[in-house]
Every structure is written in structure tokens, then in C-alpha cells.
């Protein structure tokens, strides 16, 4: 039955990871190369996520990176996965993404999240006096939709450019709360199963059961973001994935570092408790050669009925990372 259904669209989440021994400038250069590579391979979207005060993540000025990548590609959609809306005023986001959509028509996506994308101290610096104000994420999403629509052309406050661009808005989530909002607004839903898999199945069930059709979307649309480390053999993929596991161990322990080179074994690096915590975060990760990943993706799609998959790959060697995205594209095209 799997071959009788339509091909599964596949996309890229680039976390602009800074690797050991390199700089953010190297990261941005590699992002351009990866975007051009994945565009040729048939990937649908190329998204960046807003993070702040993280040594290994260089996507703090998210809209600038989106413009940079869109300017170096031709057809792939480029967007945010996501913009952390409580950090910004809806008008400024509308102007920024309206500008992007004016420069690159029909190629810009706007994924929105409610988390700060950083620690609480940094969030205070970003938001200033607004830090203690009530969060109005649902209302701010509606404001954004209006600013980007033609319906706002007689308002006293307008997004210029932006008005009438109708930039597609996505709701991002890592818990069930966002599922209710995406469903009630009739918007596509992207879930962060690449780091928060615990609520994934429950959240997409809630989203589908409560979905209300809207002017922009008639039926639920679920995109799952997953970790992928693909290589020619299972053994090589497992070796490359030790960089990813070291990165997640830094998140678990609070000792964040730049992306480390792969190592032969994690046995002497982590404790049993750290290993268990990392493996829980990596519950939705696809690590292996083509045959293993094909079987895993077939099972995952059958279980979740997702409409699109977004891939993030923390791989130290740039050429190995390019190869991983190529292998995964070939797997998806042949599912």
C-alpha cells in the first residue's frame, strides 16, 4: 500500500550549527552550499530556527539568513522554523517577512513559535519591559495574518511592504498546547520531534481531531521534524551520529559546546543516566544506511500519516552532511 500513496515531501531544517574549529562565517558558507545542494535534490523547504545565546547555533538573526539563502537559490522555499513571536512585535515580523516575500515571491514561509528560543535571562534582555507582560501568542498570530493580508489596506497601521503578500503561516510545536491553536486557526502544524518527541503522537492526534478548515487550509497538514544521519553503511552512520549525541549530551548536562568531531564510541563519554536522557530526546531519529532508513521511514509514515518530513542533520564533516541529505532524498523518492 505504501507505494500507492503520493510521494512524501521532504524539507530541511538548518540549525546553523557551528562546528569545533570553525566560525559562524564557515557555518553560513556551508548553509549556502547545503541549500543549493538540497534544492537540486528536490527538497521542498529550507528553514532556519531562531535561537539566542547558544555557542553552537548561529541563526539568531533568522530573517537575515532566510534572505541570504533565498538570494543564493532559485526555487526552494525558504523560511523560519521558527520565529519566536513573543520576542517581536507582529508588525515588525510582518514588515520583515513582507520584504522577503516581495524580494522572493511565492518562496517564503513563516513558521511561528511561542517559546523564547533561549534561556530566561537572555529572554529578559530581548524583551525588556515586555518580559513580564502577558503573552498574547494567539492574538499576535491573528495580527500577523491581518498585516499580511489585503484586508488591512484601510487600517491606520499597515505593513509596507507585507500587505497583500499572504505569506503562509505555520504553527510550530513541541507540546500539545500548540496543537489546539493550529487546529482552531486552520493552519499547518510543524512539530519539533527532533528534540521533543514525547508529545508528538498526542499533539498531532489533537490537531487532526480539532482541525477547523480555513481560507488557507482545507484539511490538516502535519510536518514532522526529525534527526537524520544517513551514510553508506549502518556502522558509518552510527559513527557520524556520535557528534549529534555529544551535542545533545551538552543540552542534557547544561555544558554546551560547538559540534564535536565523531568518535568511535560514546561508552566512555556519557553516564548511564545521560545516555538514557539523550536517547529519549532522540526517540525520533533515523540513523543508518539506506536499507535501514527505508524500513524505518516506511514504518514511521505508516504510524504517523505525516504529510511532510523536515530533516535536520548534525554531522561534523560537511561532505558527509551533503551525502546524508542526498541519500535521504533517494530513500524518500523510492518509498
UniProtKB/TrEMBL annotation:
InterPro entries: Bact_Lucif_Oxidored, CmoO-like, Luciferase-like_dom, Luciferase-like_sf
GO cellular component: cytosol
Pfam families membership: Bac_luciferase
CDD domains: Flavin_utilizing_monoxygenases
Keyword tags: Oxidoreductase
Domain of life: Bacteria
Entry GO MF terms: oxidoreductase activity, acting on paired donors, with incorporation or reduction of molecular oxygen
Gene3D superfamilies recorded: Luciferase-like domain
Domain Luciferase-like: 12-301
Similarity remark: To bacterial alkanal monooxygenase alpha and beta chains.
PANTHER family, A to Z: LUCIFERASE-LIKE MONOOXYGENASE
Protein name in the entry: Luciferase-like monooxygenase
Lineage: Bacteria, Pseudomonadati, Bacteroidota, Sphingobacteriia, Sphingobacteriales
Amino acid at each position: 500500500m505504501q507505494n500507492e500513496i503520493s510521494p512524501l515531501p521532504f524539507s530541511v531544517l538548518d540549525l546553523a550549527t557551528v562546528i569545533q574549529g570553525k566560525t559562524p562565517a564557515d557555518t553560513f558558507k556551508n548553509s549556502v552550499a547545503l541549500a543549493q545542494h538540497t534544492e537540486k535534490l528536490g527538497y521542498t523547504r529550507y528553514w532556519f530556527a531562531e535561537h539566542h545565546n547558544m555557542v553552537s547555533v548561529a541563526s539568531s538573526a533568522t530573517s537575515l539568513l532566510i534572505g541570504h539563502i533565498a538570494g543564493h537559490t532559485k526555487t526552494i522555499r525558504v523560511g523560519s522554523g521558527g520565529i519566536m513571536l513573543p520576542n517581536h512585535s507582529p508588525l515588525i515580523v510582518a514588515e520583515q517577512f513582507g520584504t522577503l516575500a516581495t524580494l522572493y515571491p511565492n518562496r517564503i514561509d513563516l513558521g511561528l513559535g511561542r517559546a523564547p528560543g533561549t534561556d530566561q535571562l537572555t529572554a529578559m534582555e530581548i524583551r525588556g519591559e515586555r518580559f513580564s507582560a502577558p503573552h498574547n501568542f494567539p492574538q499576535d498570530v491573528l495580527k500577523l495574518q491581518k498585516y499580511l493580508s489585503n484586508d488591512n489596506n484601510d487600517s491606520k497601521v499597515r505593513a509596507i511592504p507585507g500587505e497583500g503578500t499572504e505569506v503562509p503561516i505555520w504553527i510550530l510545536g513541541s507540546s500539545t498546547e500548540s496543537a489546539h491553536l493550529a487546529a482552531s486557526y486552520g493552519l499547518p502544524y510543524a512539530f519539533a520531534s527532533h528534540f521533543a518527541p514525547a508529545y508528538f503522537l498526542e499533539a498531532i492526534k489533537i490537531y487532526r481531531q480539532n482541525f477547523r478548515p480555513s481560507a488557507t487550509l482545507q484539511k490538516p497538514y502535519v510536518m514532522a521534524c526529525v534527526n537524520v544521519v544517513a551514510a553508506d553503511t549502518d556502522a558509518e552512520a552510527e559513527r557520524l551520529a556520535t557528534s549529534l549525541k555529544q551535542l545533545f549530551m551538552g543540552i542534557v548536562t547544561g555544558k554546551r559546546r560547538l559540534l564535536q568531531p565523531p568518535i568511535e564510541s560514546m561508552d566512555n563519554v556519557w553516564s548511564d543516566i545521560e545516555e538514557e536522557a539523550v536517547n529519549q530526546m532522540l526517540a525520533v531519529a533515523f540513523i543508518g544506511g539506506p536499507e535501514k532508513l527505508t524500513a524505518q521511514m516506511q514504518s514511521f509514515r505508516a504510524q504517523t500519516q505525516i504529510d511532510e518530513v523536515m530533516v535536520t542533520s548534525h554531522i561534523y564533516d560537511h561532505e558527509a552532511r551533503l551525502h546524508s541529505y542526498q541519500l535521504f532524498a533517494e530513500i524518500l523518492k523510492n518509498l
